[in-house]
Structures are given as structure tokens and as C-alpha cells.
Amino acid sequence: MEHLTEDQLWELIDSPASVPVVLKTHAEQCPLCAARLRGCLDLHAQLSAMPLEMPSVVFTDKVLDQWTLARQAQAAPVRRKASRRGLFLFVALMAVLGIFAAILISGLPAGTVPNRLLIQTTDSVGEVFADKTVLNGLLLVNALLLLWLFNQRVLSPLFQRRISVAG
To answer: Taking all residues of the chain, what is their mean pLDDT, rounded to a whole number?
Structure first.
């Protein structure tokens, strides 16, 4: 029979009842395995005599904080994908509104605008959109919304990353 492995020696020490009889008899009869078993028993006794270290008071808090950060890092890409879709829809809507407002503000007479761009409206709605103040207000709101979006999606994350790297 071959000599016992480290795992088999430690199994003899930790749970001798579950070890097959063949291994026990080999450990008793083989001088090399018996010497290795005595060495493992001495090491086991020394390790058992050592006092256990108590973790610091904040150990659990630090572990939980790291675990929470890891969980948030795993969940973050899912949120980014959803926000990119929303961002795309928002920018597309703003672009369409901007083009519409630019056509209306251009002040071209109805006869010079191609027929496919003409919108059939009642007189009261047409009068409201014909007013340059209303159209300028729409453009201003559109520009402010785009600036706000740029701040929220580009500038704020950029500065937050720089602060977290520096801190």
C-alpha cells in the first residue's frame, strides 16, 4: 500500500471514526506514516493551544459595507442600460421638437414651405404658433431641457467620478 496523503492524515486526526480500518492499520504499521501522523498531531495540539483572535468592533461593519458596494457595482450596469434607452428617446424627442420649432420660427410664408411640412390647424392654434414670442419660448425651453440633460448625464457623473477617485 502507498503512504497516506496529508488529507488522509488530517482526516485520521479530525474524524477517526469515518476513516477506513485499512488506513488506520497502515498508519500504525508504517514507520514513515506514523512519524508524519505524530507531526500532524503535534501541529494540531499547538494550533489548538493558540488563543483565538477576536475581530475588531468595526469588522462586521466594514465587511457589510464592502458587500453592499459590491452588490451596487453589480446592479449598476442594469440601471445604465435602462437609462441609455430613456436618454435616447428623450434626445430624439427634443430633436424632433427642435426641428419643428425651427421650421415654424423661420417665418417663411406658407406658400414657400413644401406641402408635406404644412400642418392643418384651426385658426386659433395657427395664430398661437405664428406668434414669434411663443416660438422663441419653445426654443428656449428646448435649449434649457437639453442643457439640463447634458448636466445630469455628462457633467454630474464626470465630477462625481473625479471626486470619488480623489477622495
So the answer is: 75
